[in-house]
Amino acid sequence: xxxxxEAASAVQLLSRPPSLLQIFLSFLxxxxxxxxxPAMIVHIRAMAVQKKRWLDEPTFRNGLALCQTIPGAxxxxxxxxxxxxxxxxxxxxASYIGFALPAxxxxxxxxxxxxxxxxxxxxxxxxxxxxxxxVALIAHxxxxxxxxxxxRWQDIVxxxxxxxxxxxxxxxxxxxxxxxxLGIVLSLNEAxxxxxxxxxxxxxxxxxxxLIISGAAVLGLLALFLFDRMLFDLSLIMLRVDLFxxxxxxxxxxxxxxxxxxxRHWLDQKTFLDGIALGQVTPGPVVITxxxxxxxxxxxxxAIVSTASIFLPSFILLVSAAPVFSRLNSFPLFRKGxxxxxxxxxxxxxxxxxxxxxxxxxxxxxxxLGFAAFVALMFRVNLLWVVLGGIGIALLFxx
Length: 399
Known about the structure:
Layout (H helix, E strand, L loop, with lengths): L19 H12 L8 H12 L5 H13 L4 H44 L3 H29 L3 H15 L4 H14 L21 H21 L1 H16 L7 H12 L5 H12 L8 H33 L3 H5 L2 H26 L6 H15 L4 H15 L2
């Protein structure tokens, strides 16, 4: 079958959809090597579009735009979108779980080792150095967000306002919501005529599976409320973090820090930094730090509940929004609100990088390590090699 024009980049799709087991195993393999966060999207595309031919290039591009708009870790969302297009909601669940499982299991093991041995001198020395590296990672994430989302004078206005509001103790969730409103208000004088929506194949809204998943989540929350209030609080926090983490995994950092460190004092800032560091040596998104938080707070059950909660809202949003995204995105005010939200995370990440930087015991070697990590990331050195190099240097010199 020959293709021309816009469809030239498309591939001929398989006549038979893959089985759920095939989807799960394919994404399990990807998840075991998913270092680098959003960089994994390239590998997901290569597997799903070019090798497996589960969907075509235009569909993948539309799905990526959706995943960058809604909250949640972008690479995770792209996996779910591929599964959704290949085998519906069950396919989305298979790809989502398969991709996240290796990171979850590894983080459980690392969290157990951390709680047992973090007070040993060698561990104290290594983690003290890695905290400087984590501050560099968050500062780099702020710069990356800024390059991607700060384009207009309205965007520039939102960034310092968001940073200042978080600094004075305003809830980051309120900051995000206010930034959405501000993004709309600052753009009211611009054209507001909806764009024409391209003709697409009709996609039915998956009401029944969404109701089943949501109902199961509500029942689970009710059971936690009745039998274990600590797990209930932990679940509610992670559900809230995921629901407002627009722009990718690093967007969850200010939200999670505010909830578990500033408000409830379950962890101190240094332990939270250690959790982010461990999250960077596991495959998968940085939000896997939620597994570490859950383990430190409530052991294995805390890790399970925390992980399920940090991924569930964005999964439900993805399968709900996919059929209607093109129409929503055609409205300028919707796009301006989302733009305001994304700009707010530039300010939130800047504020958090300063706040966590103040928790680090800085000296010349640690400052040099943090600066070197930031420069390496700016020159697009793979995140895994930056983290492993930092660990190696910390072990070698023990500063």
